[in-house]
């Protein structure tokens, strides 16, 4: 026993040492530009993120076909963060330090972004984050190509108010930071619009909540107060299928109580039969059904790349496309992949989006987007029933939260600050 | 005949907005329909109002098709056609049309508000239809958009109505109309209130509260009284509703757990891959339906029934494979079966993920499982209803197998005293394999049912594994009745906690309660007694 | 209570039933200090269950179980009863197989059983002497550093008896001590038990009649959870009912 | 008394393991700080924190092995103790951010600010003090384990039942910490730490220091464990594992023995968690995932349960593999992990260490730890002492 202890102890040391040596960081070779892809390919988030990994591979392949960047080919480095956020931080560090990537495209959840954020800050690299999120953040090394609340939630609520004449609101969401913040913003916004506070019902459910009977019947009861009622849903991916099923089965028709969702896109709808859902709404900055030549081409190329006619496209994919193109432009402009150079050159650059407009990188590292409201069709697609006349600039700090109303983000000289207080004219927060 | 004209006249009046369409002539119906092709939503709305205004029954099919999203424009020929189940027909004549090759159909899309207009427009025209279902929906249309002008129309319809359900709804519609008509006499309006309460069902409260808002003071007490009554009965029913929710949640838990009650409860294998068996069952259903949808669309409604045996066999076979391949080496090491099966579950998940992709798959709900029925104020959704029934069937079948069949006898023999059983000439390895196969097969059946309420994704199983274990442990390992009672208890408790504590806290409370309960009764609700358990 | 006076073990009207089956049925037994009592009886007579009741593993439904004239055993759990000074040897030898013979005894040795007492325990010379002594008595000194798992069946029996001695109990309950022993070993065991009975009370459950005879103690024959006959072995084995129900013709 | 116990712990060759980790605690930092990058032998900071993480995992696995390998309690909830320790540390680090948060609120963490919390909830008070926080790192997991264990062991919840209950415990905590209203940052957890004891968390020196601290802590836990398992109490623990009720019959209070082991182990897990958080820079409810706790069991099983070095080897090996696979074959690493679990349980019941013994010590007659099937007999209720036990036992 004892002897074995010694031996195995030595073994342990040998093991540790032996493995430690070979893993010495290799500096990026000069012949390729490495691009990190940081998405969950397993675990709970794989359902949404795997497609984004493929999208990046697709975009990189296209770019290489066009001759790469700065005359060099792009080399994707894929890692699986397995829906495990500390692992995400570890892998981000590994991508930058060991694999020497010049930019990383990745993350879906806020927690993923939050966990890798310090790494990018410390190692001064670039992260392009493609998903709509709660805002309240602007970081020098991160580019937010998804929608911030003012590019999705607010316009959607406006639509319901004006077009559908909604007076009574159910804010239903999964209990995590994006719905919490979005609902806080919406609640404030509605109150400002003169909605009585007892005409607002807020409800949170756990991740992957599958038994919606009680909540749906509560919604029906809430909706039976004689006022036009609508549900604003920030329910996260997996929980949506059972939610909509229950809606359909309990006979909540879009004509009576429309549901507008911020996290339900073509990808999620491909999961089930949408016939009972026809007429329910979603707010995005892109729909697969948008009828523009750019979009047509994008879909065609994507489907041929992935080798399936029935694979859909969705908003985060467009966000990745925009982010990628902006990065390429910025690198070309800066003539180098150096993070600081790119950060300086990328602000103000423009690239066409897939809905016929142009996406501009703003000083707060968010982009301009159109806002589209679509109604679910029985073929799992959306029919655009409303869209903003012009592009909406992404706002990092919501004007409807007391603490962040006076905050601005501007990463250009002279301010160069992610949380610039417009009242005290100082960088760094409100409570000074 | 006269009444018919009268009705048309009234209708035309009723739908005269905006006024410039007053002179709508039947003749330009085709033109208007043709115009739909290129119309945007606003134009479309006016065209619909317009067509409705003609009051010509001929436009009914067009509007119906438009509302149902079956109205198409053939880009090449510029014709508007109706895409029926079997054939493409002309919207007006209803004859089949052959667009020939090169036809390029694009749907004419509508939005919610337009759908509402169409519904109300159609209501007027289909109130006299021969099909009770159509009349029913028509009456609903009136219920939704009460308008005094329609009262004579309603009266006539009521006089002619034979179907009691439809009649009740029509009377409700009439009552609502009177109630909401400010010109009508107070007495009539007061008299109308009971009609609303009687006929409008769950909507009554909505309607009355609406009416209350702009009711004259002398009317208020009546309405308020009626409302109070409704609220009261609703309180009672909501309790019952909770019980029903609880039962249906419980039956889902039961389905998920009952397979485990075999593999874990009876065999003592801590089967962490149980959830994946459920998941595989769901995917089998998906595949079965895929085949059916492509090859025998006629059977689509029965695809679930067909999937049941298939899923049972597939997962059962996999179960036998697992038992032969892994479990049998681990008998007597229950805690190690946990580790092995956990690894197995990872592999199964990843396998499914790499075959079908990580995204959800679609299983269409058969018509007999979609929608809900109003069982005295209890909203009972069909899918839940059938799942409850199904859970009960599975449970009692299982009881039967275990208690009435030779296999069941042998299973109990082996689990109670392996050595004795084998010395009595029972082929224990065979029985083990069969038992595990049975457990897995039942998990597969659960998977089939779950396709109707949950995602079909590689993670499906994980959402149920912990709950399943809780149910089995709470009910008492090795006792099917324990699992049964346990599942229903947890389901109902959960549903009664949810309204007060909220979904998340409710679940937490349940878990804590289980933990405490196990302290009191370390062997669960129905603990096995005697020495048999010790082997 | 008075009846319990100056008895080592006192069972009165004890009954226990498992799911209706009466394993012990109104059983009354008395064991006096430094007395040896042999209990015989057919399988299922309730011998082992009786021991379970005494050692606190099974709670009787009715009846008194008094130890040393004053302590009510039905209120205590196994550990407490063991610490009172009741040692039990099991039907099938139960030693800690992954421990050495020595460690088995060291654990059994009568010492404070508390957590920290055990954590900081270091054997004193006195303890070592005591253990060595016991090892000699049970003839295992030469194998003291081997895993108990590697002992023969008979040796395990003796090791367990040794553990009993180490516990230094007032009352020993010995269940089939000579099962699977050679005749000579059996003889040794009988001798050993008789020695022990000089200073302590011993209750032996055994089927082996020759062994019981060697013990030469008072004998009780149990059947269906009740006393069938009592007295010297000859008296008991002469009892027609016993012959009928147990010994057979 | 204590000294004797210490000596007993040390004279067993555990001293080697301890020595190695103390050496690592000194050498690796030197290799990182003194040897310039690029030169042979330089250990990049990245590797340092990576291995720091592994060592804290190793400590967790060791803690689990103390209860599982030695006392036969298969806890599937040790991730919870780890996470609680981590949260205690995380709360301290959050308070250290002070007014450097995005809103510059001197007291409230950012997530509270934008969720419109007005003042700090009471259970956050005091965490600005390092020593208080460290006390909580020990107290919170310890207390939870003590209370949970006290009831569970007293009412003799054993085997599978206990394992499932521990799962329920960690699952309930998972759901609880996901709730934003709990005030622990919900799904996002606690992150964006600035500095610890005044030193910036990201700085190379801090990372190296944290690594050293973890290595030392691990060495100490090995010392403590070896002290316990080599004492008479350790022998009693093994006795409990192999023949629980027999141990009762020689007068030991099994429930207290278990409770002691469980609590000590939970405290170790908590400390491991506290060391883990500053090195990975985030703590979120994901750590409570029942799956994580099961993985810890796997580490111990892979390395070899019932030994002190086994779980350490297992934890490091499995996590190295994980890091490597997730980069090398992202699609397939789950297959590998799953296959590993099955392989180990089927073919390496005694883990790597057991294999080691089989290979190198077949000839030497060294007492080997009991084969699982032996102890399994006990799990199966064949523990002879319980033959006539009318109390129903789980149908294991």
UniProtKB/TrEMBL annotation, chain A:
Return the SUPFAM superfamilies for the record. Periplasmic binding protein-like I
Tell me the Pfam families matching this sequence.
Answer: Peripla_BP_5
- What CDD domains does the annotation carry? PBP1_FmdD-like
Q: Does the keyword Manganese apply?
A: no
Could you tell me what this protein is called? Urea transport system substrate-binding protein
Identify the keywords attached in UniProt to this record, alphabetized: Signal
The region annotated as signal peptide is 1-28
Query: Keyword Signal on this protein?
Result: yes
Source domain of life is: Bacteria
Q: Which InterPro entries match?
A: ABC_urea-bd_UrtA, Peripla_BP_I
From TrEMBL, chain B:
Instruction: Give the UniProt record's GO annotations in the biological process aspect.
Output: amino acid transport
Q: Which GO terms describe its cellular component?
A: plasma membrane
* Pfam families from the UniProt entry: BPD_transp_2
Q: Where in the cell is it found?
A: Cell membrane
Q: Which UniProt keywords apply?
A: Amino-acid transport, Cell membrane, Membrane, Signal, Transmembrane, Transmembrane helix, Transport
Query: From the UniProt record, which GO molecular function terms apply?
Result: transmembrane transporter activity
Please classify the protein's predominant subcellular localization into one broad category.
membrane
UniProt keyword annotation of Membrane present: yes
Which parts of the chain span the membrane according to its record? Answer: 243-270, 277-296, 302-322, 334-352, 385-402, 469-493, 499-518
Protein family according to the UniProt entry: Belongs to the binding-protein-dependent transport system permease family. LivHM subfamily.
Alphabetical list of PANTHER family matching this protein: ABC TRANSPORTER PERMEASE PROTEIN, BRANCHED-CHAIN AMINO ACID TRANSPORT SYSTEM PERMEASE PROTEIN LIVH
Q: What is this protein called?
A: Urea transport system permease protein
Automatic annotation (TrEMBL), chain C:
Q: Which UniProt keywords apply?
A: ATP-binding, Nucleotide-binding, Transport
Q: Which PROSITE patterns match?
A: ABC_TRANSPORTER_2
Q: Name one Pfam family in it.
A: ABC_tran
**Which residues lie in coiled coils?**
none
Q: Which GO terms describe its cellular component?
A: plasma membrane
Single GO MF annotation: ATP hydrolysis activity
Every copy of the ABC transporter domain together lies at: 9-249
ATP-binding as a keyword?
A: yes
- Please verify whether the record's keywords include Transport: yes
Tell me which domain of life the UniProt entry assigns to the organism this sequence originates from: Bacteria
Q: What is this protein called?
A: Urea transport system ATP-binding protein
UniProtKB/TrEMBL annotation, chain D:
How does the protein associate with the membrane? Multi-pass membrane protein
| Source organism superkingdom | Bacteria
Q: Which InterPro entries match?
A: ABC_transp_permease (IPR001851), ABC_transptr_urea_perm_UrtC (IPR017778), LivM-like (IPR043428)
Per the UniProt entry, what species is this protein from, by scientific name?
Answer: Devosia crocina
Question: What's the protein called, per UniProt?
Answer: Urea transport system permease protein
**Which keywords annotate this record?**
Cell membrane, Membrane, Transmembrane, Transmembrane helix
Q: Give one Pfam family.
A: BPD_transp_2
Q: Which GO terms describe its cellular component?
A: plasma membrane
- This protein's major location comes to membrane
Q: Where in the cell is it found?
A: Cell membrane
């Amino acid at each position: 026993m004892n002897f074995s202890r010694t031996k195995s102890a030595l073994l342990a040391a040998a093991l540790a040492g032996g493995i430690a040596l070979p893993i010495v960081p290799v500096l990026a070779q000069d012949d390729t530009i490495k691009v990190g892809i940081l998405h969950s390919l397993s675990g709970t988030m794989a359902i949404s993120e795997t497609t984004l990994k493929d999208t990046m591979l697709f975009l990189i392949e296209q770019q290489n076909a066009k001759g790469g960047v700065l005359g060099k080919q792009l080399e994707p480095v894929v890692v699986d963060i397995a829906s495990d956020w500390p692992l995400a931080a570890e892998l981000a560090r590994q991508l930058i330090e060991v694999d020497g990537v010049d930019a990383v495209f990745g993350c879906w959840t806020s927690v993923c972004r939050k966990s890798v954020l310090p790494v990018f800050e410390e190692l001064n690299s670039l992260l392009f984050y493609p998903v709509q999120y709660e805002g309240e953040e602007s970081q020098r090394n991160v580019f937010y190509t998804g929608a911030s609340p003012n590019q999705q939630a607010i316009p959607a609520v406006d639509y319901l108010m004006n077009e559908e004449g909604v007076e009574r609101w159910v804010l239903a969401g999964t209990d995590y930071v994006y719905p919490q913040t979005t609902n806080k913003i919406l609640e404030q916004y509605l109150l400002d619009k003169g909605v009585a506070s007892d005409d607002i019902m807020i409800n949170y459910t756990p991740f992957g909540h599958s038994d919606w009977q009680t909540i749906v019947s509560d919604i029906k009861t809430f909706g039976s107060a004689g006022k036009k009622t609508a549900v604003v849903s920030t329910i996260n991916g997996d929980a949506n299928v059972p939610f909509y099923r229950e809606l359909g089965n309990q006979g909540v028709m879009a004509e009576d109580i429309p549901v507008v969702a911020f996290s339900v896109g073509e990808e999620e709808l491909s999961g089930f039969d949408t016939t009972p859902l026809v007429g329910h709404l979603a707010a995005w900055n892109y729909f697969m059904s948008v009828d523009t030549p750019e979009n047509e081409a994008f879909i065609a190329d994507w489907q041929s790349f992935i080798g399936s006619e029935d694979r859909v496209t969705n908003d985060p994919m467009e966000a990745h496309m925009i982010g990628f193109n902006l990065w390429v432009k910025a690198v070309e402009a800066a003539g180098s992949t150096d993070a600081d150079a790119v950060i300086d050159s990328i602000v103000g650059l423009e690239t066409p989006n897939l809905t016929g407009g142009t996406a501009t990188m703003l000083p707060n590292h968010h982009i301009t987007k159109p806002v589209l409201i679509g109604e679910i069709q029985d073929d799992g697609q959306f029919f655009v029933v409303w869209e903003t006349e012009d592009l909406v600039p992404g706002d990092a700090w919501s004007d409807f939260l007391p603490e962040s109303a006076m905050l601005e983000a501007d990463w250009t000289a002279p301010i160069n600050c992610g949380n610039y207080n417009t009242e005290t004219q100082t960088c760094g927060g409100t409570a000074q | 005949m006269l009444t018919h004209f009268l009705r048309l006249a009234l209708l035309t009046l009723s739908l005269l907005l905006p006024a410039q369409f007053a002179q709508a002539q039947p003749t330009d119906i085709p033109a208007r329909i043709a115009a739909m092709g290129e119309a945007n939503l606003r134009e479309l709305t006016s065209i619909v109002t317009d067509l409705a205004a003609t009051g010509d029954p001929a436009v009914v099919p067009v509007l119906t098709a438009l509302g149902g999203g079956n109205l198409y424009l053939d880009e090449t020929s510029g014709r508007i056609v109706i895409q029926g189940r079997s054939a493409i027909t002309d919207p007006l004549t209803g004859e089949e049309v052959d667009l020939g090759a090169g036809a390029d159909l694009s749907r004419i899309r509508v939005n919610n508000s337009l759908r509402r207009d169409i519904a109300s427009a159609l209501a007027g025209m289909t109130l006299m239809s021969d099909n009770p279902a159509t009349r029913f929906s028509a009456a609903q249309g009136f219920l939704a958009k009460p308008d005094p002008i329609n009262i004579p129309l309603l009266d006539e319809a009521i006089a002619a109505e034979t179907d009691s359900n439809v009649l009740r709804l029509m009377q409700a519609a009439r009552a609502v109309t009177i109630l909401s008509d400010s010109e009508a006499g107070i007495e009539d309006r007061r008299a109308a209130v009971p009609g609303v309460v009687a006929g409008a069902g769950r909507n009554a409260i909505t309607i009355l509260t609406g009416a209350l808002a702009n009711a004259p003071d002398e009317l208020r007490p009546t309405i308020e009284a009626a409302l109070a009554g409704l609220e009261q009965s609703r309180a009672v029913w909501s309790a019952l509703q909770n019980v029903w929710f609880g039962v249906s949640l419980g039956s889902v838990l039961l389905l998920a757990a009952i397979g485990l009650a075999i593999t874990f409860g009876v065999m003592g294998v801590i089967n962490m891959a149980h959830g994946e068996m459920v998941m595989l069952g769901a995917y089998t259903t998906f595949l079965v339906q895929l085949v059916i949808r492509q090859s025998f669309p006629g059977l689509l409604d029965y695809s679930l029934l067909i999937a049941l045996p298939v899923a049972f066999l597939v997962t059962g076979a996999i179960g036998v494979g697992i038992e032969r391949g892994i479990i049998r080496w681990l008998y007597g090491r229950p805690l190690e079966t946990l580790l092995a099966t956990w690894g197995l579950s990872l592999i199964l998940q990843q396998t499914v993920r790499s075959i079908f992709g990580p995204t959800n798959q679609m299983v269409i709900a058969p018509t007999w499982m979609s929608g809900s029925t109003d069982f005295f104020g209890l909203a009972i959704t069909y899918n839940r209803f059938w799942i409850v029934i199904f859970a009960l069937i599975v449970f009692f079948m299982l009881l039967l197998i275990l208690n009435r069949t030779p296999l069941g006898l042998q299973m109990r023999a082996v689990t109670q005293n392996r050595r004795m059983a084998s010395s009595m000439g029972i082929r224990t390895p065979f029985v083990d394999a069969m038992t595990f196969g049975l457990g897995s097969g039942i998990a597969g059946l659960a998977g089939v049912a779950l396709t109707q309420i949950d995602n079909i994704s590689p993670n499906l199983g994980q959402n149920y594994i912990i709950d399943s274990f809780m149910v089995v442990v709470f009910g008492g390992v090795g006792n099917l009745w324990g699992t049964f009672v346990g599942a229903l208890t947890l389901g109902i408790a959960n549903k009664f906690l949810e309204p007060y504590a909220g979904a998340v806290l409710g679940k937490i409370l349940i878990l804590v309660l289980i933990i405490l309960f196990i302290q009191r009764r370390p062997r669960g609700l129905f603990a096995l007694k005697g020495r048999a358990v010790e082997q | 209570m008075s009846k319990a006076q100056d008895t080592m073990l006192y069972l009165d009207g004890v009954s226990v039933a498992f799911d209706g089956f009466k394993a012990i049925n109104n059983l009354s037994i008395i064991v006096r200090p430094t007395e040896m009592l042999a209990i015989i009886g057919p399988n299922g007579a309730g011998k082992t269950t009786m021991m379970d009741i005494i050692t606190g593993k099974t709670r009787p439904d009715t009846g008194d179980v008094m130890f040393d004239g004053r302590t009510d055993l039905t209120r205590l759990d196994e550990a407490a009863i063991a610490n009172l000074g009741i040692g039990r040897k099991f039907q099938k030898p139960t030693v800690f197989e992954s421990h050495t013979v020595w460690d088995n005894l060291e654990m059994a040795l009568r010492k404070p059983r508390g957590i920290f007492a055990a954590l900081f325990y270091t054997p004193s010379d006195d303890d070592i002497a005591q253990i060595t002594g016991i090892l000699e008595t049970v003839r295992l000194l030469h194998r003291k550093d081997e895993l108990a798992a590697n002992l023969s069946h008979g040796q395990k029996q003796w090791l367990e008896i040794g553990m009993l001695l180490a516990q230094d109990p007032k009352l020993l309950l010995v269940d089939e001590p000579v099962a699977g022993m050679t005749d000579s070993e059996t003889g040794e065991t009988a001798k050993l038990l008789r020695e022990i009975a000089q200073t302590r009370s011993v209750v032996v459950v055994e089927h082996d009649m020759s062994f019981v005879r060697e013990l030469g103690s008072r004998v009780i024959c149990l059947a269906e959870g009740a006393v069938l006959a009592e007295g010297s072995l000859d008296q008991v084995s002469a009892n027609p009912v016993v012959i009928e129900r147990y010994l057979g013709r | 008394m204590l000294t004797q116990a210490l000596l007993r712990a040390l004279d067993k060759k555990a001293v080697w393991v301890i020595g190695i980790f103390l050496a690592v605690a000194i050498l690796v930092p030197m290799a990182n700080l003194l040897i310039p990058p690029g030169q042979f032998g330089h250990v990049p900071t990245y590797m340092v924190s990576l291995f720091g993480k592994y060592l804290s995992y190793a400590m967790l696995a060791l803690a689990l092995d103390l209860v599982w390998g030695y006392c036969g309690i298969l806890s599937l909830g040790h991730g919870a103790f780890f996470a609680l320790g981590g949260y205690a540390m995380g709360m301290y680090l959050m308070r250290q951010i002070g007014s450097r948060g995005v809103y510059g609120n001197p007291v409230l963490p950012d997530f509270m600010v934008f969720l419109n919390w007005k003042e700090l909830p009471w259970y956050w008070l005091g965490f600005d003090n390092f020593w208080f926080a460290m006390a909580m790192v020990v107290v919170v997991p310890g207390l939870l384990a003590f209370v949970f264990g006290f009831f569970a062991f007293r009412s003799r919840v054993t085997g599978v039942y206990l394992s499932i209950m521990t799962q329920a415990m960690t699952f309930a905590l998972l759901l609880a910490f996901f709730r934003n209203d709990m005030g622990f940052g919900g799904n996002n957890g606690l992150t964006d730490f600035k500095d610890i004891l005044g030193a910036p968390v990201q700085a190379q020196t801090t990372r190296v220091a944290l690594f050293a601290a973890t290595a030392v802590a691990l060495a100490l836990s090995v010392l403590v464990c070896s002290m316990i398992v080599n004492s008479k109490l350790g022998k009693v623990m093994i006795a409990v594992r192999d023949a629980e009720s027999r141990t009762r019959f020689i007068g030991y209070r099994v429930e207290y023995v278990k409770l002691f082991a469980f609590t000590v182990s939970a405290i170790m897990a908590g400390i491991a968690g506290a060391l883990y958080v500053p090195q990975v820079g985030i703590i979120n409810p994901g750590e409570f995932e029942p799956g994580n706790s099961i993985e810890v069991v796997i580490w111990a099983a892979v390395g070899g349960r019932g030994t002190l070095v086994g779980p350490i080897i297992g934890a490091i090996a499995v996590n190295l593999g994980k890091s490597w696979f997730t980069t090398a074959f992202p699609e397939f690493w789950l297959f590998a992990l799953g296959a590993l679990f099955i392989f180990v349980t089927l073919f390496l019941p005694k883990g790597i260490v057991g294999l080691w013994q089989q290979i190198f010590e077949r000839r030497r007659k060294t007492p080997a730890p009991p084969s699982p099937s032996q102890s399994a007999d006990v799990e199966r209720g064949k523990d002879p002492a319980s033959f006539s036990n009318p109390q129903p036992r789980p149908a294991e």
